[in-house]
Write a structure and sequence with these properties.
single chain; about 375 residues; alpha/beta; Rossmann fold; Arc Repressor Mutant, subunit A; 3 domains; 9-stranded mixed β-sheet; 3-stranded antiparallel β-sheet; 17 helices; about 45% helix
């Protein structure tokens, strides 16, 4: 059972993927021998200092691989090792791929042949969100998969827009699954896990979302993707780090232009001046990546049948744009108690849901 040694390696907080890679290669890709190494062998590995070697051995000796394996099996968390055939091939190509990917969700529904990352500011402007909406709305109902980091701002916007547009989405987090960060995205986590895509992490469940793990996470976001869309990026930002990783990994870098007075677009214009592709509509993305997309067949939905006249009038309004309760009431002239009942029934039928600002939107 080799997998227990991969999991045991990943449970050691004091070592990174590069160190594990050196050990793995030194022992001719035998992960069991790599885990059970000794100090004399470690001294012979180029680029591995004695201090790092001794630190690893002291941490390793506290780990029981069987316990690690049992913990993951009992948790229900799924995982891939870099030896697995269904490990994402694009991610395997980067300079320091994660040797274990823990995940929740369904790998089979994500098209790893058409993945595009979206990165940007946590304090995204309204214009930035609207611009991204225009791009992703244009990809509606296709086989493209949106990858992002499940952070606040542009990341959250990207995942939600993907779900709204019947696209699958991959979220990459900077902690183990014992933590949901940010907590505001608890429901979004559930949505992605339950039929809308996959959440990946390279971190053992107990690892906390510490600040240094976010830049490490970014290499996976871009590494999973054929190209990266940068929506907003200040001169010193995680989004700019992701842009540089995209170029290092030999992938397509695309930028959405924004207001020249917005500090969060300073990085965007720097990237554009250095040769990044400017995109203003979804066709620009397809052209940059040389993609032809397949549009999914949309079948008639049984849940839309047998709506009352009042329910249908509410749905017709919300189809145009998400609306608040008072606006729906003003336009439909339905009294408060009845409108609350109709909205509740439509939610139970899975036709509408509540979104930001207590507005109602079509699912």
């Amino acid at each position: 059972m080799k997998n227990k040694y991969w999991l045991a390696f990943s449970s050691i907080e004091g070592i990174g993927s590069k160190t594990v890679e050196k050990l793995y290669k030194y022992y001719n890709n035998d992960i069991e021998k790599a885990f059970n190494c000794n100090l004399n062998d470690l001294k012979n590995i180029d680029g591995l200092s004695v201090k790092v070697a001794e630190n690893f051995l002291s941490l390793r000796d506290k780990i029981n691989p069987d316990d690690c394996y049992k913990k993951i099996e009992q948790s229900g968390i799924k995982y891939l090792t870099i030896e697995d055939s269904n490990y994402p091939k694009l991610l395997k190509e980067i300079s320091n791929p994660p040797f274990v990917l823990y995940y929740k969700g369904d790998l089979s529904i994500c098209n790893f042949e058409k993945t595009v990352a979206v990165v940007g500011s946590r304090k995204a402007s309204t214009n930035g969100k609207q611009s991204l909406k225009k791009i992703i709305d244009g990809l509606n109902n296709t086989d493209i998969c949106i990858v992002s980091g499940l952070a606040l701002g542009i990341d959250t916007c990207a995942h939600k827009l993907a779900i709204e547009n019947n696209l699958k989405t991959i979220g990459v987090i900077a902690s183990g699954f014992d933590y949901i960060y940010p907590t505001q995205n608890k429901e979004l986590y559930k949505q992605i896990e339950n039929g809308h895509g996959v959440i990946f992490t390279e971190y053992y469940p107990t690892f906390k979302p510490l600040s240094f793990r976010f830049p490490q996470r970014n290499r996976i976001v871009t590494g999973l993707s054929y190209g990266t869309i940068v929506v907003e990026a200040a001169m010193k930002s995680g989004a700019l780090i992701s842009a540089n990783l995209t170029l290092e990994q030999g992938r397509e870098l695309m930028c959405i232009p924004g207001s020249i007075t917005n500090p969060n677009t300073e990085g965007i214009y720097k990237l554009l001046k250095c040769g990044a592709t400017m995109i203003t509509e979804s066709d620009d993305v397809l052209e940059a990546l040389n993609w032809e997309v397949k549009v999914k067949e949309v079948q008639s939905d049984e849940k839309y049948k047998y709506l009352s006249d009042e329910e249908q009038s509410i749905v017709n309004l919300i189809k145009i744009e998400p609306l608040a309760f008072d606006i729906i009431q003003n336009r439909t002239k339905i009294n408060t108690d009845e409108l609350l009942t109709f909205l509740t029934m439509l939610e139970l039928k899975g036709i509408i849901n509540q979104v930001e600002g207590d507005r109602y939107s079509i699912c």
